[in-house]
Input
Amino acid sequence: MTTPPTPRGALIAIEGLDRAGKSTQCDLLLNRLISSGIPAKLQKFPDRSTPIGHMINSYLTSTSNLDDQAIHLLFSANRWEAKDSILSTLNSGTTILLDRYIYSGIVFSAAKPPVPVENPKPLSVSWCKAPDVGLPRPDIIIFLNISQEDAEKRAGFGDERYEKKEMQEKVRKLFEELRGEDSNDKEDWWVVNAGGTVEEVAEEVWRGVLEALKRVKEGNGEVRSIE
Ligand code: NYM
Ligand code: MG
Output
């Protein structure tokens, strides 16, 4: 008698602006999955623990300066270096929660103000997406949507690069564009109102997770790729 193959894990991306509550929700979700008997693992991007991650960390904490294109490609390389481990983890039946993924990669780079000499125009969304084409595509992108007002009520920004009001406003707009315009991926987005209590948000996030698990069950077992 042969045992049926283990169904693959789901690939679930959690996205949102800074202070939307992503890390809190990822921790709660990880516990809930595991206590429901669903093997799961968290993968945070940027992963600051690798050599590429160290370079990203010094850029974000402003101990180093990098060209806008170069840092963009490092964020993408930081995902590529995790690709094999993501795929083998999923194929062994473990679900992965991504705390940020290519979508943060696209919008944060495209939101940067142009530098007149080096970049007379902002980096375009299509340029920013290109290096991520071919990476594993999430079964769902759970977007923690927080209003400007609610975001402002939360504790102040940290002092990392990008944690400034003007930048966050551009990021918000670009996330909206990405969710609306990218008709190819439209069905992938699961927008959650992140303005509620931690428990309320966790409930809506959980419904997104159930949807992702259903998609995996109904799919052909293959992990799709970013197109
Ligand atoms: N960020 C994150 C990017 O600019 N590009 C990327 O590809 C990713 C994954 O890094 N402000 C930005 C968004 C955040 C910053 O993330 C650090 P975190 O989640 O605070 O460690
Ligand atoms: Mg941060």
In short: The pocket of magnesium ion (ligand 2) is lined by residues 18, 158, 160 (CB under 6 Å). The longest strand covers residues 11-16. The chain has nine helices and five strands.
